[in-house]
UniProtKB/TrEMBL annotation:
PROSITE patterns: HIS_KIN, PAC. This is histidine kinase. Residues 150-347 form the Histidine kinase domain. It comes from Halorubrum tebenquichense DSM 14210. It is an enzyme of class 2 (transferase). GO terms for biological process: osmosensory signaling via phosphorelay pathway.
Amino acid sequence: MKSAPESTPIDHAESIVNALGDGAYVLDADRNRVFVNDRLREVTEFDEAVLHDRHPERLVEEGYWSAETGDRYRAAVARVLSGEADDERVQLTTTLGDGSEVTTETRLTPIERGGEVVGAVGVIRDVTERVERERELERLNERLERLAGFLSHDLRNPLSVARGYVELARETGGTERLGGGGGGGGGGEALDRIESMIGEALVMARDPDAIETEAAAVDLDDLAADCLDSGDFGDRPADAEVVVEDPGPVAGDPTLLRRAVGNLIGNAFDHAGDAPTVRIGVDDRGLYVADDGPGLPDDDREALTEFGVSHGGGTGIGLAIVERVAAAHGWTLEVDESATGGFRATLVGAEPTK
């Protein structure tokens, strides 16, 4: 009677892998996947030829892994198979058989026989949600750091102005320079500017999907007049002209559109020369604000809407705010050349009300 063949460490690993609830597999010393469990088949939907082949070469060849992912995996498994490491964890992004992507963490442990490494076990855990939470936290921390820098730096000037007028009132007993706003100077205008900057900071602090928008019909004539009467443009050129080519109304959130259009008008006043003409309207692309200034070099356009990027001494959040307002409405911001060779910003997707 023949005796049953002696089981090998690979056989023993296969029985363990088969019982695992996570996707798992067994590699031989040449990085061939000699066994995969049903969970891995179910999740990946890869065919058997891909599952039982040299790993990671076949996955890279089939497009399920990028070349960079394959290189990182290959380096990790090499450390295990060489005996350099008893445990390796590597985070990988995989395109599944249905075309979706997942982020996984694979734990690789050696299979030994007589002190020699003869293979490895890979256990895969889906960490997509965890990674997305970590990325969102990183994005939030980045936004908060930028906002902290912006508020601590850019609020100092209007705060100093307001404080100076308060001190002057205390010393002289006169209060005429404390009120105002509306472009009249004094402490009131400084406080108005502070309030505006805080409002911008709050917009930047929120994810666009979390910004609540009100659906309303916004008349562009009224919107432009409100912007000009606000006192936001302390350095408004004396000969500047704002022309509303199409008064609307436009469907959108009045407060957010006021902030976006106001920033675009202010941008034109800051950069379009001593006597700019700013044109506002709606065309088949969306709501636009265009000027007749010198325009913007092509190599600056991509960076223009980044938080903190300023071309001319501003706070560096003006167009970043506009982009955030567009995103909150489901629109996009495009910057290009105006008909007169100046700068044009378009909130693509904004439409006139019916």
